[in-house]
Amino acid sequence: MLFAASAPPLLTELAIMLVAGTLIAFVSxxxxxxxxxxxxxxxxxxxxSGIGIISDIDLVNQSADIGVMLLLFTLGIExxxxxxxxxxxxxxxxxxxxxxxxxxxxxxxxxxxxxxxxTAVFTGLLVSLSSTAIVLKVLAARRATTTxxxxxxxxxxxxxxxxxxxxxxxxxxxxxxxxxxxxxxxALAKAAGIVVAVIVAARTLMPAxxxxxxxxxxxxxxxxxxxxICFGTAYLTSLLDVSISLGAFLAGLMVSExxxxxxxxxxxxPLQILFSATFFVSIGMLLDVGYLxxxxxxxxxxxxxxxxxxLFATASAALLLxxxxxxxxxxxxxxxxVGEFSFVLERAGExxxxxxxxxxxxxxxxxxxxVLLMAxxxxxxxxGESLAGRLEAANSDSPARRPAVDLDDTxxxxxxxxxxxxxxxxxxxxxxxxxxxxxxxxxxxxxxxxIDPEAQRxxxxxxxxxxxxxxxxxxxxxxxxxxxxxxxxAVDSPPSVVEQFARIAREHNPDVIVLAWAADPADAAxxxxxxxxxxxxxxxxxxxxxxxAHALGHFELPEPATEAVTHAVLHAExxxxxEEDS
Length: 582
Fold this sequence. Notes:
The chain has 582 residues and is mainly α. It contains 26 helices and six strands. A six-stranded parallel sheet has the order 3-2-1-4-5-6, sandwiched between helices.
């Protein structure tokens, strides 16, 4: 009986989708195509118009909604309240002008073809939205989220994501349904109240709550707390008829005000990657491959028209914001597609009797154009960077690649200048603190990675490079600079943690020197036997001076200087963080 039981429907759909998505994404990676394109192609292949092995698209769409929610949550963590404040003019002026111009131009063109004005406005609203999911994915992969182009693009995207609330309210009015202005004003007032509540919670409640949770130093408790904040906030906003994606973004903003924001980002990122892949596959499933094949010239023509309109509207908004030419060009190309929230708006329009552009197959045409533009979006970002680089070369004073925003002055190592040829110390126990003292005396750059709240407080109070998080998370490893480090040290961790740390370090940097400490000589021998660790110190009495000597030796410090530093560290009282704070 046990073996006769069938798999749950969601498991079946997800298994098919992930297997197909992985295979096609693998092929895409082998031929040099970005994974997003592979996921879209996988959806088209396994969807109803393809081979049709996915039967319940609603279940997949629910998973995709979680993907968008987690994506907006991670954006909120990286996009702090201070950054929102500093980009306020870009957000309000640029976003409003870009959405208004796009909607107005599309409306005028559609009306010129004899379509009723309400349908034309609805079509303009659909085209005005760009893809937050794709733009964030591509910018993050190219480490461009905090460049001037990234700042402008994200500011305009957030305006669009907020504007979708008003657009959904406006659709019944365009469809002739009776939704009075009082209801619309009430919904907007609720949204404004949510934003105010989030700001208050971010400044008061959230930092204290996450500090308390982090004291347990439990990955499970911390991850569950972060997910509870994300899903709980999204659920509360949905009860007030506000987008769950907006709720997730606001939850991320609350977490961003805490000192453990980088750790939270590292914990959530694997889940975000999984569900974001689900999102792109689900978008691909909506495509009617047969319609695309029969109407390819029409779809391509419409897609080119959308790109031209959005290039003009976004470039105009960038010029209005007095952005450099390089940012105008690259920003316009980054946002030259139709976004995932347009599908939400299209479904609302369908319920109100509105069809894109008033075409008989308007929905099929809209989906085909949107998927096509999404597939080409990563290439648009590349072309934008290339053109921006040429413009920068022509104008050496262009600030296009300078950071446009100074973020909060925190102790997170990610906010310091990137290091080269440095040491990464994992943990913040007594041996690690001695090692750090030796590195400082020898003027050797370093980064500490730890989930210990004491390390976090110490970094804040002294300005040292402390990255709060788990180095086994690839995001945290990247921010610690493992790829450019000369040595890494794990001197206060059990063998299992040392082995995991060493594997992560080797993945990022095969040439890095790995030093470790073990209480038991047998453990030391096991670690060295696998070749993951270059040297393990196991002698209890001589362990600390041997660790310091090995660490400094890899930086070509002269032997007399090494001995002097070792003697100073061994014979000095290295204060604990709380003592140093006082």
